[in-house]
Amino acid sequence: MTDVHYFTFSPFAENSYILSDESKDCIIIDPGCYTDAERITLKNYISDKGLNPVRLINTHCHIDHVFGNRFISETYNLPLEIHEGEIPVLESLAMVAQMYGIPDVQQSPDPDPDKFIREGDVIEFGNSKLEVLFTPGHSPASVSFYNREDKFLIGGDVLFEGSIGRTDLPGGDYDTLMQSIRDKFMPLPDEVTVYSGHGNPTTIGRERRSNQFILSYSS
Ligand SMILES: [Zn+2]
Ligand SMILES: [Zn+2]
Fold first, then answer.
1. Is the pLDDT score of 116 beyond 80?
2. Residue 65 alpha carbon to ligand 2 centre in Å
3. CA 129 – ligand 2 centroid, Å
4. Which ranges constitute the DSSP H helices of the chain?
5. Which of 43, 83, 205, 209 has the fewest Cβ atoms nearer than 10 Å?
6. Ligand nearest to the CA of 10
7. How close is the Cα of 142 to the center of ligand 1, in Å?
8. Which residues contact 145 (CB under 8 A, 6 or more apart)?
């Protein structure tokens, strides 16, 4: 059974995920820890539970999802794993930080080219398996992670409770995003919990029935 835990970090209120199971291996997805206190919170959770971090992964590389990449990579000696198409987003990090007027942003390590994540890959750790879904539109190469056995989805900023990801940032596109939701998320069972990059968890069924962006999209 895969346990999903998240902390909401930084002025962007970004959800940083730690997935673990009975093996005690864990993976860290989108570490958004920005302050020393947040980095300590994340580290303490891992040590208090006796977890062994084995992978560092980003759903996409917007600034709020990568604040903690360097800290996690250096603390646990882990390479960064992303979709290759997110490299331009990662490379614009310093510029974006300056644009938002955010000081002291730790530069992310470069991703490991031997570990680029692709549609159809299976992310394995401990006894857990996550299927990779390619879900662009909010960013050029967002990926989502589906745990079929425990029925949850780590969806990044693709779909939120009652809303969808913004599409006005570089590489974003509304139709592409809606098609990702329609073609990759909506075929999943109603009971699948969606853990988003911001806000509360929701379910596929709830969004299918009540999300106005989904209900009104026709193309
Ligand atoms: Zn984003
Ligand atoms: Zn975000």
1. yes
2. 6
3. 24
4. 36-48, 63-66, 69-76, 87-91, 93-100, 174-180, 204-210, 212-215
5. 209
6. 2
7. 9
8. 29, 57, 59, 123, 130, 131, 132, 133, 153, 154
Quote the ligand 2 centre to 156 CA distance (angstroms): 7
Tell me the residue length of the chain: 219
Give distance in angstroms: CA of 158 to centre of ligand 1.
8
145-175 tens-digit pLDDT: 999 999 999 999 999 999 999 999 999 999 9
Domains of the chain: 3-215 (3.60.15.10)
For residue range 36-77, list pLDDT tens digits in order: 999 999 999 999 999 999 999 999 999 999 999 999 999 999
What is d(CA 89, CA 66) in angstroms, rounded to the nearest whole number? 10
Centre of ligand 2 to C-alpha 16, Å, is: 10
Residue 98: pLDDT over 90: yes
